[in-house]
Automatic annotation (TrEMBL):
Residues 141-223, 366-446 form the RCK C-terminal domain. Gene3D superfamilies: NAD(P)-binding Rossmann-like Domain (3.40.50.720), Regulator of K+ conductance, C-terminal domain (3.30.70.1450). This is Trk system potassium uptake protein TrkA. One of its GO terms (molecular function) is potassium ion transmembrane transporter activity. Keywords: Ion transport, NAD, Potassium, Potassium transport, Transport. InterPro entries: K_uptake_TrkA, NAD(P)-bd_dom_sf, RCK_C, RCK_C_sf, RCK_N, Trk_Ktr_HKT_K-transport. Residues 1-121 form the RCK N-terminal domain. One of its GO terms (cellular component) is plasma membrane.
Length: 446
């Protein structure tokens, strides 16, 4: 597959990292020679110095033969224009990053699709969805729903109160049991577990289950004493925070701390009357106490400063808040934040890259999420008639190392997968993929 990326910044670099694993024919365009030199030395790809708004540059990059053209420069107008040009040059599919919620309206998306922009990506909206999914369950680090919750993946940090520690998984996750453990993150290692593996205290374990058994999972991992989230404090009033508040469940109440007085005035116009906007620094412990942090179940730090977000979450935890969410845009800080037990980590470029990564897959793929914590992908595949995965039971498929099938949805009903499961065409199959080539996996479903 021939792929062109315009923009060698944060999202472009992260996307190149994901795509380079699949050994695609990859070209990155940028006007910044230093960024190109860096990305060219780190990954196996071609770089081209030039403007993505230049027809000459796009022709030189081979846009006429591109299967996927991705525009992720900081300038949304440049992204849209370059996609329109690439489409005119006969690129098969185009994707543009935008920075305004207006572009997400259906009629606006269709307008640009008619012009040649097949997909618009708004990272702030994608991040807000992830934040709200995390807030719905205070005891879960990450939640991932398939078919509106028919099947659910839960990433849970295990503590001493977990009652299934130090027992072989073959004794816990049999064909009749209501959950499977599809992956374990232990320190810096990601484990795709077998029957003899055991869960240990402080593991980050990924459970696959169905919606009806979520309370059961909560019980066995010892998280019943965690209070459900009703009151949330936000640090930072940027676009992601505003979008998260506007789309959060109605039963939640929000307080937002913003240092900039002018931005506070804007937020008061944007947000509804149920959100209290406070002109102040959420790292001020006296202010937090005054605003009732001891009666708050979640603290979300979304400023542009990763260090400030991490420190604020640590402070909130020390003050008794169990659920903390930190935006960490610097990938190098993610491991550090996890080692400090921050809670849920939000990285907009990883979220946006996951969405774009989905678009390069030829099989029917409903969703792809890259789990930074586990350095792994989770994908929903829909096998076609006579696909390889439909010909044998799962145990006889000879799945590549690092891949496990966690569950499937058939006719709207979620079910877990065992070795004897026979996958059918049209099922939605959830696959966990660690250090493996997603494109090779894709062939099994075509």
């Amino acid at each position: 597959m021939k792929i062109i990326i315009t923009g060698a910044g944060a999202i472009g670099t992260y996307l190149a990292r994901l795509l380079a694993r699949n050994q695609e024919e990859l070209t990155v365009i940028d006007t910044d020679e230093e960024l190109l030199a860096q990305i060219g030395s780190d990954y196996d790809l071609l770089t081209l110095h030039g403007s993505p708004a230049s027809v000459k540059t796009l022709k030189e990059a081979g846009a006429a033969d591109a299967d996927l053209f991705i525009a992720v420069t900081p300038d949304e107008n440049e992204n849209i224009n370059s996609c329109i040009l690439a489409h005119a040059l006969h690129a098969r599919k185009t994707v543009a990053q935008v920075n305004n919620a207006e572009y997400m309206e259906r009629d606006v998306q269709q307008f640009y699709k008619d012009l040649g922009v097949d997909e618009l990506i708004y990272p702030e909206l994608l991040a807000a969805r992830d934040i709200n999914n995390g807030l719905k369950m205070s005891w879960v680090r990450q939640r991932w729903d398939v078919h509106d919750g028919a099947l659910v993946m839960l990433g849970i940090k295990l503590r001493e109160s977990c009652e299934i520690l130090n027992q072989p998984l073959k004794d816990l996750c049999g064909p009749q049991d209501p959950y499977h453990v599809v992956a374990i993150k232990r320190g810096d290692e990601t484990i795709i577990p077998g029957g003899n593996d055991e869960l240990k205290c402080f593991d980050l374990a990924y459970f696959m289950t169905t919606r009806r058994y979520i309370p059961y999972i909560r019980k066995i991992v010892g998280k019943e004493h965690y209070a459900d989230v009703k009151d949330v404090m936000f640090m930072g009033g940027g676009a992601t925070a505003a979008r998260a508040v506007l789309t959060m469940p109605e039963y939640m109440n929000a307080k937002m701390f913003e240092i900039d007085a002018r931005r506070c005035e804007e937020l008061n116009q944007i947000l509804d009357d149920n959100t209290l906007v406070i002109n102040g620094d959420a790292r001020d412990i006296a202010l937090l106490n005054e605003e009732g942090i001891k009666n708050t179940q979640a603290f979300v730090a979304l400023t542009g400063n990763a260090e400030a977000n991490i420190l604020a979450c640590l402070t909130a935890k020390r003050l008794g808040v169990r659920k903390t969410v930190a935006m960490v845009e610097n990938i190098d800080y993610v491991s550090m934040a996890e080692s400090l037990d921050i809670g849920t980590i939000i990285n907009k470029k990883a979220i946006a890259a996951s969405r774009i990564y989905q678009l390069m897959l030829d099989a029917d793929v409903m969703n792809v999420t890259f789990l930074m914590s586990a350095n792994a992908d989770v994908a929903e595949f829909i096998p076609k008639e006579k696909a390889v995965v439909t010909r044998k039971a799962v145990k006889d498929l000879g799945l590549p190392q690092g891949i496990t099938i966690g569950g499937l949805v058939r006719r709207g009903e979620g079910q877990l997968v065992s070795g004897n499961t026979q996958i059918q065409a049209g099922d939605t199959v959830v696959v966990f993929c660690h250090n493996a080539n997603m494109k090779k996996l894709e062939k099994l479903f075509n």
